[in-house]
Amino acid sequence: MSESRRARLDTPRETRRSIVRRPSVDADAFGVFAESFARYMGTAKFLLWMTMFVAAWICWNVLAPGDLRFDEFPFIFLTLMLSLQASYAAPLILLAQNRQEQRDKVVAEQDRQANARAHADMEFLAREVASLRMAVGEVATRDFLRSELRGLLGDIEDLSRREPEDEPGG
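RE: above sequence
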């Protein structure tokens, strides 16, 4: 009886259905968001907007009437807001850097493979050029053929001059 209740290794386990579904996060979509966020935070536009925000915050809380101020001089709430922004920005920037590192690894591997193929192609072409040089060394050159043909032409001319003299009746 205990054997029938025990899970067997050759059969898959049944999946449990939970009452509350866990939220599913598309890692790629979140990574794209993190990259765009990190890219935006690295611009002069972001720095300008952030500087204007902080300056407006400080000006409002210093120059506004007392009953309209919401963050007095030590600007604790501003510090809290900036810390919150930094606490979210840092992991997003790290995520963007990790994704960029993975892309760089893929590109580096592709470059390495392309370099290996180019090296193999160059070695092959070097062997082909060497074999062509050796084959050309064994082939008759144009100058060699011309000299041989001139020699044969000279022999033919000598033979043609001798033939009329050697003929009987002449």
